[in-house]
Write a structure and sequence with these properties.
Protein name: SsnA protein
Radius of gyration: 21 Å
Number of helices: 13
Largest sheet: 9 strands, mixed
Keywords: Hydrolase
Organism: Corallococcus praedator
Distance between the termini: 56 Å
Number of strands: 18
């Protein structure tokens, strides 16, 4: 028994195409594409009546727990270092395992309702390390989103905390299956001593994965890395053999060209996070220089990839360095395909069936030539009507099918209140 999507306009991002064809899905994969496909006797037929069939979006850098900090009363730090020490790190310290799981469910639900079917989460809860990634996976499993999870290893809590983080990120990567994969994660490079870098290298060899980490979000990363450890972040990462085509560096807004060129030469993915950079007032990352392996992430902001793509494009225009927003979105699919070792994104035979149905009534012709303009100026999460992950409908008629949004919101508010209370004490 399969599912046949009939009468929709199927979108491909790179090379761009918009074509009125049918898709047949069986199990977790697309098995046929063509005009006026004939359904089998047991197939379910979904009449789309001209709606868009769009690849499920990939969020290449997110922090799920941040949903619990929304609206939190906080100091107004004057510097990036003060932001870390007075806001971000105390919030992470206040997380317990129950809050971690609830935040994953709430953040995962928002993600899938916005059209994200795969997200890469870099997590930190220094006082609740062991089991945290499994709890995130449980939270995401309730929603049905695909997840690549890592724990942000750091020396910030001392050697014991560092070793707990290494064990957690390695343990999860070893046992992740199905819709989940693990990576080795790290905090900012200036929070990593030489022993931590060595431990990360050993973890990468053990898990055969890549490193997911923030890089040069602010000039502080280079200054403190040099002051504390004798070399800037890129030099230390290269000396530790930590950069590779499987590695993912988020932000990269404050690198000299020579350092950026060295990062690009390793094949490392660069993840652009323009809304987060704006919110933290850390400046504009030169996304046009990020090369062929650049994608988009939302960091701690709302998990809306359509909004992120629009912000990325508009900020690049403002900087006089316009980017190809369709390539950035398509690169998310290439990254996810690399990690899951299966085609994710192409609306073609053999690809995993991660897709969206968008109820978008285009006011102008929607073609391969105009697709980017519709993504930037028209399409949005408000148009997401249905979401399929692994061949299973997870959202239908804008309603999540496996969780009750009211219950999730109530649990999230309770968890947030408990975290905020721990912050005040």
């Amino acid at each position: 028994m399969g599912t046949v999507l009939k009468g929709g306009y199927v979108v491909e991002l790179e090379p761009a195409s918009v074509e009125r064809v049918d898709l047949r899905i069986e199990g977790e994969r697309i098995v046929a594409r063509g005009e006026d496909l004939t359904p089998g006797p047991d197939d379910e037929v979904v009449a789309l009546s001209g709606k868009l069939v769009f690849p499920g979006l990939v969020n290449a850098h997110h922090r799920l727990a941040s949903v619990l900090s929304r609206g939190m009363v906080r100091p107004v730090p004057e510097t990036y270092q003060a932001l870390l020490e007075q806001v971000r790190w105390p919030f992470e310290n206040a997380l317990d395992l129950d809050a971690v799981q609830v935040g994953a469910t709430a953040g995962g639900l928002e993600s899938i309702q916005c059209g994200t079917t795969t997200l890469f989460d870099l997590h930190a809860s220094p006082k609740a390390v062991t089991g945290s990634l499994l709890r995130i996976a449980r939270g995401l499993h309730e929603v049905g989103v695909r997840g690549v999870l890592s724990y942000a290893v750091t020396d910030r809590m001392g050697a014991v905390g560092r070793e707990e983080g290494l064990e957690e990120t390695v343990s999860f990567a070893r046992k992740a299956r199905g819709r989940f994969r693990g990576q080795v994660g790290a905090g900012p490079v200036f929070t990593l001593g030489d022993d931590a870098l060595q431990g990360l290298g050993e973890a990468l060899n053990t898990t055969n994965t890549g490193l997911h980490f923030p890089l040069a979000e602010d000039p502080l990363d280079e200054r403190l890395s040099t002051e504390r450890h004798g070399n800037p972040p890129v030099t230390r990462l290269l000396n530790g053999n930590l950069l590779s085509p499987r590695a993912m560096a988020a932000h990269a807004g404050h690198l000299e060209w020579a350092d950026l060129a060295q990062v690009l030469a390793t094949g490392t993915w660069l993840v652009h996070t323009p809304r987060s950079n704006q919110g933290l007032e850390v400046g504009y990352a030169p996304a046009l220089k990020f090369g062929a392996r650049a994608s988009l992430g939302t960091d701690g902001t709302s998990p809306d990839l359509f909004a992120e793509a629009q912000a990325a494009f508009l900020r690049s225009r403002e900087a006089g360095q316009p980017i190809d927003v369709l390539r950035y979105l398509a690169n998310g699919h290439r990254l996810a395909s690399q990690v899951f070792e299966a085609a994710i994104g192409p609306m073609r035979e053999g690809a995993l069936a991660d897709l969206l149905v968008l109820d978008y009534q285009s006011p102008t012709p929607l073609t391969a030539e105009t697709l980017a303009w519709h993504v930037v100026h028209g399409l949005g999460s408000r148009h997401v009507e249905a979401v399929m992950v692994d061949g299973v409908w997870r959202v239908w008629a804008r309603r999540p099918l496996s969780v009750n949004p009211t219950v999730v919101a109530e649990q999230s508010r309770e968890a947030a209140a408990a975290v905020w209370a721990r912050l005040t004490t």
